[in-house]
Amino acid sequence: DTGVSQDPRHKITKRGQNVTFRCDPISEHNRLYWYRQTLGQGPEFLTYFQNEAQLEKSRLLSDRFSAERPKGSFSTLEIQRTEQGDSAMYLCASSPSRGARGTDTQYFGPGTRLTVL
Amino acid sequence: AQSVTQPDIHITVSEGASLELRCNYSYGATPYLFWYVQSPGQGLQLLLKYFSGDTLVQGIKGFEAEFKRSQSSFNLRKPSVHWSDAAEYFCAVGVRTGTDKLIFGTGTRLQVFP
């Protein structure tokens, strides 16, 4: 069990540029979550995947944000036309499928810290 | 609406002293409750969770938490703090719908003096 991995760990970009982050969940975890954490705040839910299906999106996820999970494996989060307000830590988490043991626990990756200049 | 309140933004304790971090939640049914710890620049590590059953739950690193339904609280405790416990601590409630997404509090930063 190698844990949840995220790439890159840090990203600095200029306002208006597009960025893409990747998350590799724990293998065999069907459920995948994205959260955003701004300075001095707790993580806030962005979106949820069960296998390849995106089943819930937060109102925080504006039209500039898109997430995918092709084939139910890794996931990507893309931000188009970045704004300074997008600067945050983007966290990915995974958990086993509902009904499986430990389904109530989410395991977090180290996060991607985005800085928009 | 579901919410989590952590009233203490910053707590400072001496090494070896006892610790209690407060957490209050708002949730319409029996909640899933979690405590996570985050070291600087790192992701979140699960300390412990309450799902059902015994209201006093034991976690890793010597932490424990007690679920009190009457007070809507899930306070985290440790009898003797170590310098390595300095970190940010987050309480969270799991929304028991199809997603089981987590609602986090704003966190409590723990500083430990030698």
**Low-pLDDT stretches of chain A:** none
Largest sheet of chain B: 6 strands, mixed
Strand residues, percent of chain B: over 45%
What about the largest sheet of chain A?
Answer: 7 strands, mixed
Secondary structure tally: strands of chain A = 11
What best-fitting shape of chain A do the alpha-carbon axes yield? globular
What percent strand of chain A?
A: over 45%
Whole-angstrom Rg of chain A: 14 Å
Total helices of chain A: the number is 0
**What is the end-to-end distance of chain B?**
41 Å
What is the terminal-to-terminal distance of chain A?
36 Å
The averaged pLDDT of chain A comes out at 92
List segments of chain B where confidence is low: pLDDT < 50 over at least 5 consecutive residues.
none
- Please count the beta strands of chain B (DSSP E, at least 2 residues each): 12
Q: Roughly how much helix do the residues of chain A carry, as a percent range?
A: under 10%
The oligomeric status of these chains comes to heterodimer
Considering DSSP H and I runs of 4 or more, what fraction of the residues of chain B is helical?
under 10%
Topology:
The complex is a heterodimer of chains A (117) and B (114).
Chain A: E1 5-7, E2 10-13, E3 19-24, E4 31-37, E5 44-50, E6 53-57, E7 65-68, E8 75-79, E9 88-95, E10 107-108, E11 112-116
Parallel strand pairs in A: 2-11
Antiparallel strand pairs in A: 1-3, 3-8, 4-5, 4-9, 5-6, 7-8, 9-10, 9-11
Chain B: E1 3-5, E2 10-14, E3 19-21, E4 24-26, E5 32-38, E6 44-50, E7 56-58, E8 64-68, E9 73-78, E10 87-94, E11 102-104, E12 108-113
Parallel strand pairs in B: 2-12
Antiparallel strand pairs in B: 1-4, 3-9, 5-6, 5-10, 7-8, 8-9, 10-11, 10-12
Model description:
The complex is a heterodimer of chains A (117) and B (114). Chain A contains no helices and eleven strands. Chain A has strands at residues 5-7, 10-13, 19-24, 31-37, 44-50, 53-57, 65-68, 75-79, 88-95, 107-108, 112-116. Chain B is mainly β and 114 residues long. Chain B has no helices and twelve strands. The N and C termini of chain B lie far apart (41 Å). Chains A and B meet through strand 4, strand 5, strand 9 and strand 10 of A and strand 5, strand 6, strand 10 and strand 11 of B.
